Description:
Strand order of the largest sheet: 10-9-8-11-12-13
Low-confidence stretches: 1-5
Number of domains: 2
Order of helices and strands: EHEHEHEEHEEHEHEHEHEHEHEHH
Mean pLDDT: 95
Radius of gyration: 21 Å
CATH class of the largest domain: Alpha Beta
Strand content: 5-15%
Number of strands: 13
Amino acid sequence: MTETGAGPQRLLVVKLSSMGDIANALPAVRALKERTGAAMDWVVQPEYAPLVALCPDVERIIEYPRRNLAKGFWRFVRELRRERYDAVVDLQGLLKSASVAWLARGCRRVGPAWAREGAHLFYHARPERHPGPRGHVVGELMDVVELVAPTGSVEWPEARLDVPEAPASVRQTGPRVGLAPFSRWATKNWPPEYMAELGRRLAAEMGCRLFILGGPEDEANGLRLAEAIGDAASNQCGQTDLPGLCALLKSLDLLVTVDSGPMHWADALGVPLVAIFGATDPARTGPLRQLDHVIVVDHLACRPCHERTCAREDLACLRDLEVEQVFAAALERL
C-alpha cells in the first residue's frame, strides 16, 4: 500500500453497467485499494448499485440517472462534484462513461486502451494497445490500474465482497445446482430442451435440487424450464434482487451456465461452475479463475464470431454441445 501522502488519496471509478461487466471490474478495484489505500467512490446506474454495495472497498456510490437523465442531470453533477479526485478511472470505455469522468472534479482521467465512441479524447492517458488478439477483459482493466498505481505486477487480485447468506430454505441438504441458461444474445444460449434434459438427469441420477436463475425478463422461460425438469427444479428468475441472487449463487454446490452475468459473479464468489460458450470467446470473457471448466465446440471455424445472430442460422456452436458432455463435466465438479 502506498504511504500516506505518497499517492492518490481519493479515486473515482466509473463503471456504469452491467452485471457481468461490474464483476469483471472487481479485481481492478481491489488492486486500486491494495496499492493506494485511497478512498474510492463508484459511479454506476441505479439498477446495478446494489451490486457495487457488496464491495467494501467502495466508500460512496454515485448513481448515474440513465433513465431520467434530463430531470436528474444537475443533481447528479452536484453529487459527482462533491469531492475532488486525484484520479478518475473509467473502466467502461464508452462515450457516456468518459463524459461522466470529464464532468467529475478529477486531476487526471484514465481509461482502457480499447475505448470506443471517441471516449479516449476525454482521457489524459490510456494503456498502449498490444498487437495481436485481445486478452481477457480483466487483464485489460488491470492495465488501466497500472496508469494510476504502477507496480508491474501480473497478479490479478481476488474480489473482496460482502454477500449475505441465502435463506435457510435454500441451504438444505442435497447437492444444490444452479442453472443460468439465459443471456441477451441468442448466440450464447444453449437450447432449452438440452438444459431441461440436463436438469432431469442431475435430479434423477444425482439427487440434485435445481435453481433456475435469471432476471424478471426471464421469468416465463424459467417457469417453462422448471416445468420441463420437474419437481426438483425451482424457478428463481425475477424472485430475488441482485444481492439475493448473489446470496443464492454463493450457496450453490455448482452452477451450470452460459456466458452471463451470473457466471461472472459465481466465479468472483468462488462457486464451482461449468460454463457453456457459443459465439463468444472464453479467452476474453470467460470465468477468469475457472477457464478449465469452459465447454466449447472445437470443429467450427466460425466461432467465436462475437455476433448476436448466427450467420449459419443453425447455432451449431451451441447445438453441437451434447447433454452428455455437459453432464459429465458437471459430475466432475460435484
